[in-house]
Every structure is written in C-alpha cells, then in structure tokens.
Design goal:
It contains eleven helices and 21 strands. It has 387 residues and is of the alpha+beta class. The protein has two domains: 222 residues, Rossmann fold; 150 residues, RNA polymerase II/Efflux pump adaptor protein, barrel-sandwich hybrid domain (OB fold (Dihydrolipoamide Acetyltransferase, E2P)). It is globular, with a radius of gyration of 25 Å.
C-alpha cells in the first residue's frame, strides 16, 4: 500500500465501539456512509485529532499523526486539518473576511487579508466579504466555512454533513461548486453523509459503516451493485434481496445458474458459491427490464419472470411498482419505471406483467438470515429457502 494520502485504522471497545479501516488518496474524495450512530463523525474527529481512540494508527503522506502503541498523538494544529462542520461553526460576530482570516494567524496581516479575499472569491463570495454570518444565506455560510477550511493549505479536508442545513436547490448548486473546486485540490477529502445519492454523486470511493465497523469500501457504484453482504445491501437501500440455491457454474460461458421460486436464473459467473449451496442474491432496480406489450423489448429472453402488480405509486415523472412473483407470502420485486412507460403498457394494480432480470445485475452473497425481511408465519419452511 502506498504511503501517499490518508490511512486510518481505529479500534476500541468503549465508550464508542470502533473497528474501522479506511484510506483516501491525494485528490480523492472518500464518502463515509451509514446509519446514525455508525461512527462516521467519530472517525472524522479522530482524524482531526479532536478525539483519541484507544488503539489504532493514522498516517498522512507517510507521516504518523497517531499511533496508540507508540504514544504518538499530534495536535489538531500540527496535523493541519481543514474541517467543515455540519452547522459551519462560524464566529457570529466576525465578517466573512474576518472568519477566514482567523485561520491565517501565522501570516502577516496584509497577506492574511489578501489570501482570505482570494479564497472567498474562489468560492464565489467576492463582494460579500464584510457581511456577518447572520446576513448570509445558508449556502453562503457554507462557502465561508469551506474557504476557512482551505485557508491553511490543509493536508486533509474533512466535511461533516456539510449540505444538511441548506434547501435542496442550494444543495444542488453546492454539489456542483464542490465538484469544480475538487479539480483544484490535491489533498484527500473525507465526506460524512447520510445521503446515498450525495455519496454516489460526489465521491470517488465509499466506505460503508455500521456500529463503528467498516463493512465494505470501494468505488460507489461497485459497492451499490455488488454489496459484500445482506447487511450492506440493506444499509444502502437495496430492496430486491432474496434467497436462492446454486444449481451450476459454466466458466466457459461466464455463467452461474441459480434456482429461485421455480425459475432457473442465469447470473454472471460467481464460483465462490459452491453448487448446491444456499445463497442470498440481489439485483438493483436498474437491472430489471419491463417487457413491452406492443412489441418485443431488448433482453426479453434474459431471465423472464412474470408477476402481478401489487402496488403502483406515482413519484413525479416515475412510478414505483411492486411486483408479486409467486405466493403473496414471499417478498416482492421492486422496480421504478418512467410514468409514460407505465401508462403506455397499462401498468396498474392487478395487471400481470413480465420483466427480465438482467444477468450481469444478479449478485450473490452469503446466506444471512439476520438481515433478511421478516418471514410470514404462513410461509412454509421449504418455500422460505427459495424466497
């Protein structure tokens, strides 16, 4: 592993349990995602030097900032961290310019002011330097906080839910501005967020956490489409998670065959799961293709499955469809389709429709009863195995 960038390993049993490991390269944005209480902000505070954990090691570009075993624990000032807090933590009695200048006390006064003005201009706040925080909008306050975080030319930039306090329209503008700003940054950037779409949109890599433990890390869309476990799939909001049996592998064709509710499904090759074993499998909604009624659709021969529409909910220009495949006691399939497609195909509650489960979207995981949907008391045990 390269020494470049940020490398973090944290462990402790109490007071806040941690068993986390993460890495972020220079110029890369790493998103920490997970439910409330998963340890995201705690990890950020440990990186910044605001919290000392009982075991672990933190290095940045080969320099050891923290090593519990060696007794090394650099102060936040020595680590030179840029930190943008959830509610910005601006000094209310200081102007935007003065707030940024507070991070530049090691420079002569004349240089401090010019650098602060340059940074405010960089985040699109030129002309607002003399305004107090209360005279700025939420988005403008967030920009001041970013400018202040960048003022000291930090080794690492930490962002703790930086968009949660602004409205959706402002948030989308800030996303674009942060993406543009990132092209100029050569430091690791760690983003804490509860918003999965935000992580997918902004980050290069994503780390999924639960109860202070790292469950999976990797490129966001890889993690979303190929979760390491049912727990990760559930935390990421993957709805289509079922049980199946492995029938066979065909390496020459790149295919694994599974049996699910009487259907023989073709999945991409995944030989880690032995023939005859029981597995959990998942498929993203984007990998489910609705068959058109007026003419054949592409991919209709790929794992066709029929069912009855149990629920139909309009979501703006899209529609959320719940498709019951087999017995009503079994978990349904979920898919989202454009509303005009639903209308053209006369999709409504009670309609019988056919979909294709695209082979490359079928992802196998170890069997995990603990994180599967609750079983119905009316569901026979034999049928549960093929949910």
């Amino acid at each position: 592993m390269s020494d470049a960038g940020l490398h973090v390993r944290l462990r402790q049993a109490a007071p806040i349990p941690l068993d986390a490991e993460l890495a972020c390269a220079p110029g890369e944005m790493l998103a920490l995602v997970g439910p409330s209480g998963s340890g995201k902000s705690t990890i950020l505070r440990a990186i910044a030097g605001l919290l000392r954990v009982r075991e672990g090691r933190i290095t940045c570009n080969g320099t050891v900032w923290f090593d519990a075993g060696a007794g090394i624990d650099w102060s936040p000032q020595r680590r030179r961290i840029g930190f943008v807090f959830q509610h910005y933590a601006l000094f209310p009695h200081l102007t935007a310019l003065a707030n940024v200048m507070e991070a530049l006390l090691d420079l002569p006064a004349v240089e401090r002011e010019q650098r602060a003005r340059d940074l405010l201009a960089r985040v699109h706040l030129a002309g607002l330097e003399e305004r107090l925080p209360r005279e700025l909008s939420g988005g403008q306050q967030q920009r001041v906080a970013v400018a202040r975080a960048l003022a000291r030319r930090p080794n690492v930039l930490l962002l703790d839910e930086p968009f949660s306090a602004v409205d959706r329209a402002t948030r989308e503008r800030l996303y674009k501005e942060l993406a543009e700003l990132r092209t100029e940054l050569s430091m690791p950037v760690v983003l804490v967020t509860h918003d999965l779409d935000e992580a997918l949109m902004l980050s290069d890599r994503m780390c999924v956490l639960a109860q202070g433990r790292t469950l999976q890390a990797g490129p966001p869309f890889d993690v979303l489409s190929r979760p390491a476990s049912v727990q990760v799939a559930r935390l990421l909001g993957v709805k289509n998670v079922f049980r199946a049996g492995v029938l066979a592998h065909e390496p020459e064709r790149g295919v694994t065959w599974i049996e699910w509710r009487g259907h023989r499904l073709e999945a991409r090759l995944q030989t880690a799961f032995p023939t005859g074993s029981q597995v959990t499998w998942a498929i993203p909604q984007g990998q489910i293709v609705l068959h058109r009624r007026d003419r054949p659709s592409r991919g209709e021969r790929e794992n066709p499955v029929s069912g009855v529409v149990a629920q139909f909910v309009r979501l703006g220009e899209n529609a959320a469809v719940t498709l019951q495949v087999g017995e009503e006691t079994r978990p349904p399939l979920f898919l989202t389709i454009p509303l005009h497609v639903a209308r053209r195909n006369k999709i409504d509650v009670g309609a019988r429709v056919t979909v294709s489960l695209l082979r490359d979207g079928i992802h196998l995981m170890p069997l995990d009863e603990a994180h599967m949907p609750a079983r119905s008391a009316a569901e026979p045990a034999a049928e549960r195995r093929a949910r």
